[in-house]
Amino acid sequence: MSSEKMETVIDDQAQSGGPQAEAARQVEELRADVDTIDAAIVAMLAERFRVTHRIGLLKAQAGFASADLRREASQIAALRDEAENYGLDPNLAEAYLHLVADAAKQGHEQLARQLGSR
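The structure corresponding to this sequence follows.
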């Protein structure tokens, strides 16, 4: 086998009628489920950032720092536990939290700058 990455075009396999066509059709069905889940995740992220935007406004108006390291540590531990309960890699859950928390803090800092320049 060569070191080049292999690719299987599932659409082609599903239409081929060959021995792998049924597996390819099942992959297509599962991918539709993944697409639905991804769309729901994006909707939930949008809602999460609407809420964190409101938090950022309140923090900026009160003069609070954008970071709350105690809260972050607590959330990391809670999400890691939750991930384990669902059979998900806790490192993935933690990486997610860092991604969204960092983005939220950047937004909070931007709001603080905007309110401070008025």
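The mean pLDDT is 91.
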